[in-house]
Design brief:
The protein is built from 14 helices and 12 strands. It is α+β, with helices and mostly antiparallel strands. The protein folds into 2 domains: 133 residues, no CATH class; 228 residues, Bira Bifunctional Protein, Domain 2 (BirA Bifunctional Protein, domain 2). A 7-stranded mixed sheet has the order 3-7-8-12-11-10-9. A hairpin with a 2-residue loop joins strand 9 and strand 10. Helix 3 runs parallel beside helix 6, helix 4 runs antiparallel to helix 6 and helix 7 crosses helix 13. It is rod-shaped. Bound molecules: 3,4-dihydroxyphenylalanine. 3,4-dihydroxyphenylalanine binds next to strand 11 and strand 12.
């Protein structure tokens, strides 16, 4: 008679009527349990076993589309099988023993059967449940987890408004065939000044005062040095934009910050003229601020461009009528631009007799302030979530 058959019969039917044979019977059950546990451990406890869904004979583990959840065919780990076989509520061996041996046991045997049964049950819980937990990668737990505790909430961050605008500007130029180039924020004096036609004695250096890491190294004051690096790296023709952080000795106020962002643009090719610069910036302004805006250029000075200009856009908020956004002028200044100085091309290893180019530099923080009507540049760098959460 198999063990499964034995647990389906009463002690009476099995002819067990004294303490010694009860003991022997339980020992047999216990031995069998440990044996099965042992072979489970030897198998590594990790080999899944195909358990066909008897209610759906057509199901097969190899049929595409069958999933191992509740749709019929399932894979079970041996630990699960062991648990179900021994501790299963309905037809587990321990439930059968309780049902057929303990409950109907004659009075004089009941305490003995009860004690033996309890010992077996405790051992099974430790051995099988403990073992199953280890096999499935969890430590056996002594206290039940409190499932009513709230879970961990990890708040999602958002993209910083300045980065959002930077990406928007990048996208417009990527669409025009430009590529994105970056450079170091700790830059050599040569790239930041000399190569851009700002020699040591030039007064323009005063406007670009910054932290000197040593006599030859500065925190870059603009993104223009990326122009030089790109020219050296790729030569001509060249179409790049260079976004990034810049540093200047500025006292922080609502429109100044010692650290700020710029986007540099540079196009070098044969036959590039000021008309290309105007056309490109006009296209860009319309994409960014809306199709109705107009652009205006007026002369300016930068050592690295000749001629140089400032570009302004008609106010997108009042259509040039004058309002708070444009400070009643009808126009919003966007940044500097010009035709790349022949000396700068030469420093970059590009022949100015063959190639010409234009460049511009825009303040990304300023663009963001205009776009979102933000009155104070400091808000960008204070890390206040109440502000940042709004984007
Ligand atoms: N580098 C200039 C600045 O920081 C901005 C600028 C003006 C860049 C004209 C350019 C340019 O490339 O052509 O003020």
């Amino acid at each position: 008679m198999t063990l499964e058959e034995k647990v389906g019969k009463t002690l009476d039917e099995l002819g067990v009527s004294d303490a010694a044979s009860v003991e022997a019977l339980f020992n047999e059950v216990r031995a069998r349990m440990l044996e099965e546990l042992d072979s489970f451990k030897r198998l590594g406890g990790r080999t899944p076993v195909w358990k066909p869904d008897v209610s759906r004979p057509e199901s097969s583990p190899y049929r595409p589309g069958t999933t191992p959840d509740n749709q019929g065919p399932t894979f079970q780990f041996p630990s699960t099988r062991l648990r179900v076989k021994w501790l299963g509520r309905k037809s587990g061996i321990l439930s059968s023993i309780d049902e057929h041996w303990l409950k109907p046991a004659p009075k004089h045997l009941k305490p003995i059967v009860g004690r033996a049964f309890n010992r077996l049950r405790q051992e099974a819980a430790v051995e099988i449940l403990g073992e199953a937990a280890v096999a499935e990668g969890q430590a056996p737990s002594t206290t039940a987890p409190d499932l009513t505790l709230p879970g961990y909430r990890r708040p999602l961050g958002s993209i910083h408004p300045v980065m959002r605008v930077q990406r928007e500007i990048e996208d417009i130029f990527l669409g025009l065939g430009f590529s994105i180039e970056t450079g170091p924020e700790i830059e050599s004096v040569y790239y930041n000044f000399d190569a851009l036609n700002i020699p040591e004695s030039h007064p323009a250096r005063d406007d670009f005062d910054t932290i000197y890491v040593d006599a030859q190294t500065v925190l870059r004051t603009h993104t223009s040095p990326v122009q030089m690096r790109a020219m050296e790296k790729y030569g001509a023709p060249l179409y790049i934009i260079a976004p990034g952080k810049c540093y200047r000795r500025d006292n922080p106020d609502s429109t100044h910050s010692p650290m700020f962002h710029q986007i540099e643009g540079l196009a070098i090719d044969t036959d590039i003229t000021f008309a290309d610069l105007k056309g490109t910036l006009d296209f860009f302004a319309k994409k960014f601020f809306g199709e109705k805006v107009r652009t205006s250029f007026h002369p300016s000075f930068f050592p690295f461009t000749e001629p140089s200009g400032e570009v302004a856009v008609s106010c997108f908020a009042c259509d040039g009528q004058g309002c708070r956004v444009c400070k009643q002028s009808g126009w919003i200044e966007l940044g500097g631009c010009g035709m790349v100085h022949s000396e700068v091309l030469r420093h970059g290893g590009i022949d100015p007799d063959r190639y010409s180019g234009w460049a511009f530099g825009l303040g990304t923080d300023r663009f963001t302030m205009i776009k979102y009507d933000i009155p104070d540049i400091q808000l960008f760098f204070q890390g206040d979530v109440r502000f940042l959460e709004q984007f």
